[in-house]
Amino acid sequence: MNSHESLHSLAAKRRRMAQPQRVHKFGEGVLADIARLCMNDLYSDVSFFVEDQRISGHCAILATRCEYFRAMLFGGFTEERQIRLPEVPLEAFKVILGYLYSGTMSISTLDVDAILQVLSLANLYGLPELESVLTETLLENLEVCNVCAILDTARQYSMEDLNMKSLNFIDTNGAQVMEDDFFLMLSKESLEEVLRRDTFIAEELKIFQAVHKWSLHNPDVDIKSVVSLVRLPLIKVEDLVSTVRRSGIVDPNNIFDVIDKATKPENLPYRARQSPGVDVALWVTRSIVTKSEILIELSFWHMINYINIAGLRNSTYILDCIVEISCDMTHWVNLGSFTFSIPTKMFVTFARRPVRFIRIKQLSRKNYFKDITISALLSTDT
To answer: How does DSSP classify residue 182?
Structure first.
C-alpha cells in the first residue's frame, strides 16, 4: 500500500469514528430467554426448598441480580446447593424470582396481602427499586380494611413514608378503622403509636371501647401501657363510672383521679385536626342561629387561633357581642367582649387550641346575625 492509499484509509477510518455509532439492541429477546430459565431445571445449579416445594435456580443469575443471593451463594459461608428457606412464603418467593430473572412484575395481579409479603422479601433481599414500586402501589390503595396491616409492615421495616401516610389515613378515618376487624390484629407497638397522636380524631369513649375489644382479642399482651394512652379525662363522668370502671382494664382506684381531671377544663388533652389556612367553620355539621346567639358545631375538633366575623357589604351598624369557644359544650372559654362596625371585619385572635364549638352572643336587642359571616382558621405560620 502506497502512502496515498494509506492516507486515504486513515481519513476514511476517522470519518467512520466521527459518525454516530449504530448499536442494535436486542434486550427484549435476551430478557425473554433468561426469563424462561426462571424455576427451570435447565442448567440449574442450586435448589431452594420453600414450604416443602423444590425450586430450581441459577447461581450466576441470582448472584448478579441480587447482593443478598451473591453473599448466600458465593460468600464462602456455604457450598451447599440445596438451601432451605423455612420462613419464606412460597408465592411471594416465586414473584421475587420472576422479577430477578425477567426484570418485570405484574403488580396488578397481586392483592394487598400478596404485595405485603413480596415487600417484606424485597426489603430482606435489598431490592430498593422493587420496594419503591410496591410502596407506591400500597399508598394508592390505602383503605380501612388494609391500613392496619400496611402500618404494621411499614413499622416492621422502617418505611417512614409508608408509615406516616398510613398514620395520616387512620387519623382521618379513626372511627371506621376501629370498627374494622383488622384493627384487632394491629400490633401493640402500632396501636400505641396511633393512640399517642394528637391528630387521631375519634370520640374518646369509642377509642376506649376499641382498646378494650383489642385487649380481649390479644389476652396475652400487657394492656397497661396501651390503656395509659387513652385520654380518659375526655370521657364523660357517667361513662367513666359505668363503661370504663366495669371493663376491668383500668384500676378502679384511678377512676376518681380521672373524674377530678375531667371536671377541670384546664389543659384537657383534646385530639384535634390541623388544617392551616383552611376555614374550618365551613365544615360545620350544625349551625343554630337565634336573635341573640349563633352556635356553630364543627365537624371535628380543629386547632384554630383566630375567628373572623364580617358583615355584608350592604349593611351598616354597630355589633356588640361576646365570643366563646368550647370542646364539649360544657366548658366554655370566653374570648372577650367585642364591638365593631359592620361591614368592617373583626379578627378575634387567641393562643392556638382545639375547638369544636363556637358561640357568639349578641348584646344588642336587634337581630344582626342574619347579616354576618363567620370563619375560623389556624394561621399558616404556626
So the answer is: G
Between the CA of residue 231 and those of 147, 291, 343, 381, what are the distances in Å?
A: 23, 37, 43, 28
Phi-psi region of 52 (alpha: psi -120 to 50; beta: other; left: phi over 0): left
pTM of the model: 0.80
Domains present along the chain, CATH in parentheses: 30-141 (3.30.710.10), 158-271 (1.25.40.420), 280-377 (2.60.120.260)
Strand 82-84 relative to strand 46-50, pairing: parallel
User: Residue 187 contacts by C-beta under 8 Å, 6 or more apart in sequence?
Assistant: 152, 155
Cis peptide before 265 (omega within 30 of 0): no
Q: What is residue 8's predicted lDDT score, i.e. its pLDDT?
A: 60
Dihedral sign for Cα atoms in the order 32, 34, 38, 40: positive
Cell for 291?
A: 336573635
Residue type, 82: Q
Q: Does 278 score more than 90 pLDDT? A: yes
Residue 254 pLDDT level (bands cut at 50, 70, 90)? confident
DSSP 8-state assignment for residue 304:
E
Q: d(Cα 280, Cα 356) in Å, to the nearest integer?
A: 10
